[in-house]
Specification:
58% of the residues lie in helices and 12% in strands. It is of the alpha/beta class and 187 residues long. The protein has a five-stranded parallel β-sheet. It is globular, with a radius of gyration of 16 Å. The relative contact order is 0.20. It binds adenosine monophosphate.
Length: 187
């Protein structure tokens, strides 16, 4: 199954995508995690991504899409994947659609994780990542509203979106996520 985890920054996509990936036995591809790992390893990619991440801005599409296109060509991702944090704007959504179509594939379902904004901000502050200061969080949420939310409509038009309520314990939310993925697999 080829899945996308969609939702605001801080809604719990990473945690839930990882749990679902483990349960379904398919890889989890997180662009944010790839950038953070590249930075930790002192790689050029990480250093270039950092100036954007630190501000809560989107890393340029050329860099981000190249990573995803490369990942999609890996044999380990040939039988399904869970994308988390990508696509984050319409141009990325179009690039992804094109790259998958070239491989005779497509997205099966978009799991849209939701939570009230105050909950999201609290979770991000509690997480304490480098880019989780109040100013940067506000900027990330603004970027989300301006650039990422239109991606939801892109997939709604293709009737691929399944909404999952993201408030509750990790296992409780996971059960909802798993049910949504099961419905997607059966349809
Ligand atoms: P995340 O771990 O998904 O919250 O991503 C952390 C940061 O990485 C974001 O605030 C962006 O700066 C960058 N990033 C991750 N995914 C993307 C993407 N698809 N497009 C552009 N920037 C991204």
């Amino acid at each position: 199954m080829n899945l996308i985890f969609f939702g605001a920054p801080g809604v719990g996509k990473g945690t839930q995508a990882e749990k679902l990936a483990a349960r379904l036995g398919i890889p989890h591809i997180s662009t944010g995690a790839i950038f953070r790992a590249a930075l930790q390893q002192g790689k050029e990619l990480g250093l270039r991504a950092r100036e954007y991440m630190d501000r809560g801005a989107l890393v340029p599409d050329e860099l981000t899409t190249a990573i995803v296109v490369e990942a999609l060509q890996e044999p380990e991702n040939a039988n399904g994947f869970i994308l988390d944090g990508y696509p984050r704007n319409l141009s990325q959504a179009e690039d992804l659609e094109r790259a998958l179509a070239e491989q005779g594939r497509g997205i099966d379902s978009v799991l849209y994780l939701t939570a009230p904004q105050h909950e999201i901000v609290e979770r991000m502050l509690a997480r304490g990542r480098n880019d989780d200061t109040e100013d940067v969080i506000n900027h990330r949420l603004e970027v989300y509203r301006q650039e990422t939310e239109p991606v939801l409509k892109f997939y709604q038009d293709r009737e691929l979106v399944r909404e999952v309520y993201g408030v509750g314990g990790i296992d409780e939310v996971h059960d909802r996520v798993f049910d949504a993925a099961k419905v997607a697999a059966e349809s």
